[in-house]
């Protein structure tokens, strides 16, 4: 328990007073690795292209989420809320709620998106809360999305149980982040990647997570690798920003070695 508490404290600082979005690895208030075109070239990447890559990761998730105009959508791990605003603007759900564990992130989300909140009252809102104990009644959302947040979830079965509880019958979970490719991969990755070694990232085998979703009651469960559009571009951006010898470059090396990959996972709550 002491180790888990220490890991949670590190995350709280990273996303709270540390404001990870201010790191030069990210831009535009997003906090994700990005979805990149094949022809990205180190040294020729602009800040606008970096921001676009992060918005495009959201779009890839949303294209698979099949969101309709009458839908209520929950984003788990919404961060500063720029992704939530993108969902509302480009995919037009009736209502979107962003949930984040960090009070600081929720406060930032409300500041950054103040114009949207004022212009469209009731359509966008932000709540503080845990992915394992969501502050919502049963069966109130048509869709649940999560973009590069689940690598921090220490209780994926608890998360899956909460998602299936808050989704309406026929509702869909669409999630993207990185997972390991084998049961022993996390142990092999710890010496290479600081956030895995110190417990900030709790990487899980992708097969284990897919089975957790099925055991929880989701069916079908679909897993799609998108690593070819994530790791090369992110590594190119790190080179561009002066991280030549930083441990962060080991993400790409681990992908090349087949130890981890980046996935979009889709799972449906049965309609009956």
From TrEMBL:
InterPro entries: Erg6_SMT_methyltransf, Methyltransf_11, SAM-dependent_MTases_sf. One of its GO terms (biological process) is methylation. Keywords: Methyltransferase, Transferase. Residues 74-174 form the Methyltransferase type domain. The keyword Methyltransferase applies. Its EC number is 2.1.1.254. It holds the Pfam family Methyltransf_11. One of its GO terms (molecular function) is S-adenosylmethionine-dependent methyltransferase activity. This is Erythromycin 3''-O-methyltransferase. It comes from Nocardia aurantia.
């Amino acid at each position: 328990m002491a180790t888990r508490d220490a890991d949670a404290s590190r995350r709280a600082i990273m996303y709270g007073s540390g404001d990870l979005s201010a790191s030069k690895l990210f831009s535009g208030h997003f906090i994700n690795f990005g979805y990149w075109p094949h022809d990205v070239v180190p040294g020729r990447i602009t800040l606008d292209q970096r921001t676009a890559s992060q918005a495009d990761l959201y779009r890839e998730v949303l294209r698979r989420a099949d969101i309709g105009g009458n839908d209520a959508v929950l984003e788990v791990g919404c961060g500063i809320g720029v992704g939530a605003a993108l969902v509302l603007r480009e995919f037009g759900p009736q209502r979107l709620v962003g949930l984040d564990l960090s009070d600081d992130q929720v406060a930032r989300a409300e500041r950054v998106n103040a114009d949207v909140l004022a212009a469209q009252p009731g359509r966008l809102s932000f709540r503080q809360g845990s992915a394992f104990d969501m502050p919502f009644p049963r069966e109130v959302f048509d869709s649940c999305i999560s973009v590069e947040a689940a690598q921090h979830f220490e209780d994926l079965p608890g998360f899956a149980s909460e998602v299936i509880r808050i989704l309406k019958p026929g509702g869909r979970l669409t999630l993207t982040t990185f997972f390991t490719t084998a049961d022993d991969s996390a142990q092999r990755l710890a010496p290479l990647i600081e956030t895995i070694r110190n417990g900030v990232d709790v990487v899980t085998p992708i097969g284990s997570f897919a089975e957790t979703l099925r055991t929880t009651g989701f069916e079908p469960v679909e897993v799609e690798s998108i690593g070819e559009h994530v790791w090369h571009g992110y590594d190119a951006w790190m080179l561009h920003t002066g991280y030549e010898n930083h441990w962060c470059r080991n993400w790409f090396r681990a992908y090349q070695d087949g130890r981890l990959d980046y996935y979009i996972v889709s799972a449906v709550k049965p309609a009956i």
